[in-house]
Amino acid sequence: MPLHLRLLLPAFTLALGHALGFIDPIGLVLGTAASALILFGERRLPGGAWRVLVLLTGIALAAHLLPGFSPWTLWQPRQISPDAPPYALRLSWDKLLLGTALLAWWLGRPSSPARSLPHAILVCLLTLLAVPGLAVLVGLVAWQPKWPEGLLLWLLVNLGVAVLAEELLFRGLLQPALIRRLGAWPGLLLTAALFGAVHLPFSPLFALLATIAGLGYGMAFHYSGRLSVAVALHGAVNLLHLLLLSYPLRLV
């Protein structure tokens, strides 16, 4: 896809967020700078420095550390599970911008060959079983099957904002570079560890589960050669969490 068409993704995000009142002028400036770094910095900066800068910028956007962005509350806090705190669904414009800017970058890259589709399928099945099972086993969540109201809206926001941005940042941007430099298993493990580390604000136990899940997502991408497989797997794990377990997390 030509660059001028890919640029429309972050540009439209910034324009729509500003028009709706969720992105202030300072957010426009910072968001434009972040998008320019992602889309143009790779050719103008050393590869390692560019990836570190994009990773730090991405974490800052995903963690809502940059000023000028306000979330869009799509539903007010309400009880999803009787053993969990109330949950509010919010669309985070800074994380959406990260996803659209990284997607614009990713669409300009050549596709990767599949290494082993049977291994990719096996990893997906094991991840879908192991991550929810371990979460129940360590007490982070309990068995709470449900069909919550607003499921489609939740799925659109979770898959199209959170999952897409995280997979593009960690598996799309970071993992291939670490594998090239360190080798397959060290690169996969380090990427998963960094993915888990950004979840430490929730709890160390949650970060450990995120590391295990991240290893599954990374292996699915590595074996299939398709980032879409990792995105789908990540989204499926999150969906199982919502439909079958305490959501967002069990109250201790």
UniProtKB/TrEMBL annotation:
<dbReference type="Pfam" id="PF02517">
    <property type="entry name" value="Rce1-like"/>
</dbReference>
<dbReference type="InterPro" id="IPR003675">
    <property type="entry name" value="Rce1/LyrA-like_dom"/>
</dbReference>
<dbReference type="GO" id="GO:0080120">
    <property type="term" value="P:CAAX-box protein maturation"/>
</dbReference>
<feature type="transmembrane region" description="Helical">
    <location>
        <begin position="52"/>
        <end position="75"/>
    </location>
</feature>
<feature type="domain" description="CAAX prenyl protease 2/Lysostaphin resistance protein A-like">
    <location>
        <begin position="150"/>
        <end position="240"/>
    </location>
</feature>
<feature type="transmembrane region" description="Helical">
    <location>
        <begin position="87"/>
        <end position="108"/>
    </location>
</feature>
<keyword id="KW-1133">Transmembrane helix</keyword>
<keyword id="KW-0812">Transmembrane</keyword>
<keyword id="KW-0472">Membrane</keyword>
<dbReference type="GO" id="GO:0004175">
    <property type="term" value="F:endopeptidase activity"/>
</dbReference>
<feature type="transmembrane region" description="Helical">
    <location>
        <begin position="230"/>
        <end position="249"/>
    </location>
</feature>
<feature type="transmembrane region" description="Helical">
    <location>
        <begin position="20"/>
        <end position="40"/>
    </location>
</feature>
<protein>
    <recommendedName>
        <fullName>CAAX prenyl protease 2/Lysostaphin resistance protein A-like domain-containing protein</fullName>
    </recommendedName>
</protein>
<feature type="transmembrane region" description="Helical">
    <location>
        <begin position="205"/>
        <end position="223"/>
    </location>
</feature>
<feature type="transmembrane region" description="Helical">
    <location>
        <begin position="120"/>
        <end position="145"/>
    </location>
</feature>
<feature type="transmembrane region" description="Helical">
    <location>
        <begin position="151"/>
        <end position="170"/>
    </location>
</feature>
